[in-house]
């Protein structure tokens, strides 16, 4: 039996599908399972289509790729292997994260991970540094060194996932 994904779309399509399946000797349970699978396939196809072609009214949210360490102001270009970010995208160099911050974000108290690289080349249409350049505005920590050290001393022994 040939089943088509569009047979699962809408109540009329489901009714037709159930009729066809029952005529061929399937149980209602088998028909329902098949219809659910086809409906999920249709949803998955629509999800993939939307991800590859977002509607114009849905802005794409990307990492800022901030250009500097917020503490020492070191340059951190998009391909900097020593750039670190927290879950709020606060950006610091690995040296400051290890030496001064001790893996404690001075803004939120979270931990840091290596910042991912944005591909230089557009391997897919509309993707890559050419289409989504890094941020230009340089950020600077609003906290004093003493306040940063106090927060780091308080939290550095607590794993980031337990803070």
If you had to describe this structure to a student in words, what would you say it looks like?
The chain has 163 residues and is mainly alpha-helical. It has 2 domains: 5-52; 83-162, no CATH class. It is 36% helix and 5% strand. The chain has 4 helices and 3 strands, in the order H-H-E-E-H-E-H. The protein has helices at residues 10-23, 28-52, 94-101, 145-155, and strands at 83-85, 91-93, 113-114. The protein has a 3-stranded antiparallel β-sheet. Strand 1 and strand 2 form a beta hairpin. Helix 1 packs across helix 2 (28-52). Residues 5-9 have low confidence and may be disordered.
The tally of structural domains comes to 2
Question: Structural class per helix/strand content?
Answer: mainly alpha
Helix share bin: 25-40%
Give the overall pLDDT as a whole number.
84
* Biggest sheet character: 3 strands, antiparallel
Q: Which strand order does the major sheet show?
A: 2-1-3
Helix/strand layout:
Blueprint: H1 10-23, H2 28-52, E1 83-85, E2 91-93, H3 94-101, E3 113-114, H4 145-155
Antiparallel strand pairs: 1-2, 1-3
């Amino acid at each position: 039996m040939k089943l088509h994904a569009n047979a699962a779309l809408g109540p009329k399509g489901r009714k037709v599908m159930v009729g066809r399946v029952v005529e061929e000797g399937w149980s209602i349970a088998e028909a329902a399972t098949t219809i659910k699978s086809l409906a999920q396939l249709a949803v998955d196809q629509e999800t993939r289509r939307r991800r590859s072609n977002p509607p114009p009214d849905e802005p794409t949210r990307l990492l800022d790729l901030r250009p500097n360490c917020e503490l020492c102001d070191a340059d951190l270009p998009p391909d900097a292997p020593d750039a670190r970010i927290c879950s709020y995208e606060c950006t610091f160099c690995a040296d400051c994260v290890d030496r001064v911050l001790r893996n404690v974000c001075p803004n939120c108290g979270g931990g840091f991970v290596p910042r991912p690289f944005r591909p230089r080349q557009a391997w897919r249409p509309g993707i890559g540094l050419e289409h989504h350049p890094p941020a230009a505005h340089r950020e600077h920590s609003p906290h004093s060194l003493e306040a940063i050290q106090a927060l780091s001393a308080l939290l550095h022994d607590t794993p980031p996932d337990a803070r």
